[in-house]
Write a structure and sequence with these properties.
heterodimer; A: mainly beta; globular; B: alpha/beta; FAD/NAD(P)-binding domain; 4 domains; 4-stranded parallel β-sheet; 27 strands; binds iron/sulfur cluster; binds zinc ion
Chain lengths: ~45, ~625
């Protein structure tokens, strides 16, 4: 089931909320700079 | 198709489903469920006697529901084998037999209500997947009123209506009054090339199909006026432009613009279309007696189970991904499995036949040779180091590793013929029990060392996968896209090969920034290996943070072979990040990692000591 998490772009620092499914890797890109270095920072 | 049915060396298993596939190239074991058709196909002569007596009437799927069939039926007139079957979902009932009229009608006694599904196990050398495609259902596109107005039909329904073996025996009539429509509007790209619908691809066949339809109409019914509403006409095949010209010369009106709305005149049941002609910006209302929606094609809805059975990946559109778009367009990423037709991408008959011939040749080369030559980039096991954790067989996208079993002392077995060499297992094995031929740990480490040997503060270590990121870099080069030369690439076959220890080693050697880059998820040439890359990088970000190292210094990027410009942009952005990393930060990182290494070493010594027998006392 999809949950909502906080993601942080490790290139530009932009933080945003998005859906994710635990344990299912998903290709992400930062809505601001387009980088794929997007890390889920919460909820832990 | 008849030739296939008669060929002494082709065993045709119609009305059957694949239930299980195991093994590898040259040695596939396939379990097939041959569904009971309740009619002995070798005896049935398709005489039609049974059909006359069957009381059940249901819509005929082959005729797009425009006519009906019985519960005992033949799917299409040219079906091979030419034998009937009973659709048990609609039959009045078996066990006990509720009707059985067909049973009495069949003089040859081919009907057998006790027939059971049959399981057939096959030993197969190669597999060709040619399961075709589905056609887009335009119901969701309210603007065209497909389900609301009877005279709005799809191109598939048009096909049945104009076909001699169709429900009207080729007499072209419109559904509401069974009269010849005088004005027909074709709307192109329905369910194709639409970002709004999430269906960005071109369906490839619809333009030419409509051109063919307009020519058919012009030939058979010159009095019919045809209009085609289009985004652009794609007539790129041999002789296609000529057909397009012929269609225009025959009086067909091609209007560049897609109707925004279609509505019906409730009395005449004719239709009005409001369209902006994009060549002059004028909005006009066009009248038509019938509207034909030129629907696109899509991957089969029941594709997923087969895809999983054969460990095949699909691209973002859902069509199966080929091994290489230019060099191996008929090969799947799994060795010994090939594609033919629309399962791989939308294509017309000619391209499907071409691909099918190529797939058959590719398959028979392997079968005739009796052995396969594989690239020597495969994984190898060192059983002495293995602790039977089983991770390697779980992560292998090709199921190329037979699992370990601690109880029986069986080590994981890497099937060399099935291994594609992605390196995921080697990167995931924490015991270093797996290494890769040609992309060995030692080779990778020495590349990192040589990059960082001099002026490490000025370098960025970038791991780039062979098929996408590295090729993206190549494209950037050939397109003269500027990117900083201090970003130094280390090629791996797949980003899945990038072991945690390579990244940590680079930081230990003073790298200010490390980049891991691979294919976009949908382009991964190793099915799903890229997902393991992502997991590993996420794990590394956590580890770096725990140790007090900024996770930002490890960057992750997905760059395709076609994204030369993006490659340049990413590299320039990463170079900017590098310039902000200070020497103190790098020194501190080296210290932290050294300490961590020492701690780990001490823990290992302790662990090993605990495992030693007490005899030493
Ligand atoms: S991952 Fe490594 S240790 Fe675990 S079973 Fe495979 S080879 Fe053995
Ligand atoms: S290298 Fe890749 S394909 Fe080969 S065994 Fe390891 S995980 Fe499977
Ligand atoms: Zn960003």
């Amino acid at each position: 089931m999809a949950e909502t998490g906080t993601f942080k772009c490790l290139r530009c620092g932009h933080e945003y909320e998005d859906k994710y499914t635990p344990k299912v890797p998903q290709e992400r890109s930062c809505p601001k700079c387009g980088s794929n270095s997007v890390r889920r920072i919460g909820p832990k | 198709m008849m030739d296939v049915g008669r060929h002494p060396r082709i065993k045709l298993m119609a009305y059957s489903e694949i239930e299980h596939v195991s093994g590898f190239i040259g040695n596939f074991h396939v379990k097939v469920r041959k569904k009971a058709r309740y009619v002995d196909e070798s005896e049935c002569t398709a005489c039609n006697d049974c059909v006359k007596d069957c009381p059940v009437i249901v819509p005929d799927e082959y005729q797009q529901g425009l006519s009906s069939r019985k519960a005992i039926y033949i799917q299409l007139p040219q079906a091979v084998p030419s034998a009937y079957l009973i659709d048990m979902e609609n039959c009045l009932g078996n066990n006990p037999i509720a009707c059985g009229k067909c049973l009495d009608a069949c003089e040859k006694k081919c009907i057998d209500f006790d027939m059971q599904d049959e399981i057939v196990n096959l030993e197969i050398g190669t597999i060709i997947v040619s399961t075709g495609m589905d056609v887009y259902d335009p119901t969701e596109m309210d603007e065209f009123g497909y389900r609301s107005f009877e005279n709005v039909i799809t191109s598939m329904e048009f096909e049945r209506l104009i076909c001699a073996s169709g429900p009207t025996e080729g007499h072209f009539v419109r559904p509401t009054d069974h009269k010849l429509p005088k004005k027909i509007a074709f709307i192109q790209c329905v369910g194709s090339r639409s970002e709004k619908l999430g269906r960005n691809y071109c369906s490839n066949i619809c333009c030419m199909n409509t051109i063919k339809d307009t020519l058919l109409l012009a030939d058979h019914y010159p009095e019919v006026e045809s209009k085609v509403f289009y985004i652009d006409i794609r007539a790129f095949g041999k002789g296609f432009e000529d057909l397009y010209m012929r269609s225009k010369e025959s009086g067909v009106n091609y209007i560049r613009g897609i109707p925004g709305d279609v509505w019906e005149d409730p009395e005449t049941k004719s239709l009005n279309l409001s369209v902006e002609d994009t060549t002059n910006g004028k909005v006009r209302i066009h009248e038509a007696d019938m509207v034909v929606l030129s629907v696109g094609v899509e991957p089969r809805k029941d594709m997923k189970p087969l895809q999983q059975l054969l460990t095949l990946s699909s691209n973002a559109d859902g069509f199966l991904l080929e091994s290489h778009p230019k060099l191996k367009p008929v090969d799947s990423p799994t060795r010994g499995i090939f594609y033919a037709g629309c399962v791989e991408s939308p294509k017309d008959v000619k391209d499907s036949v071409t691909q099918a011939s190529a797939a058959a040749s590719r398959a028979s080369i392997i079968l005739n040779a009796g052995k396969v030559t594989i690239e020597a980039i495969t994984a190898v096991m060192d059983p002495d180091k293995c602790n039977f954790c089983g991770v390697c067989s779980r992560v292998c996208p090709y199921h190329a590793i037979e699992p370990a079993d601690k109880k029986s002392g069986t080590y994981p077995n890497i099937i060399q013929a099935a291994c594609a060499g992605c390196g995921t297992c080697a990167a995931e094995c924490t015991m270093d029990a797996i290494s890769m031929r040609h992309f060995t740990d030692a080779q990778m480490i020495s590349q990192i060392d040589s990059i960082l040997e001099r002026n490490p503060m000025e370098k960025v270590v970038a791991f780039a996968c062979n098929w996408c990121s590295y090729a993206g870099g190549d494209l950037a080069g050939t397109c003269r896209v500027q990117y900083p030369t201090n970003i130094q690439l280390i090629r791996t076959m797949c980003s899945g090969r990038v072991d945690e220890k390579f990244v940590i080693h680079a930081f230990k050697k003073g790298a200010p920034i490390v980049l891991v880059s691979g294919c976009h998820f949908s382009d991964c040439h190793y099915i799903s290996a890229v997902q393991w890359t992502q997991r590993r990088v996420e794990k590394l970000w956590n580890r770096l943070e725990r140790l007090g190292i900024r996770p930002e210094r490890l960057q992750l990027e997905w760059i395709s072979a076609a994204e030369g410009q993006r490659f340049g942009r990413v590299m320039r952005a990463i170079e900017e990040m590098r310039q902000k990393v200070t020497e103190e930060e790098v020194k501190e990182t080296i210290e932290i990692l050294k300490k961590e290494e020492e701690k780990e070493r001490a823990k290992k010594v302790k662990r090993e000591a605990a495992l030693q027998p007490a005899a030493a006392v």
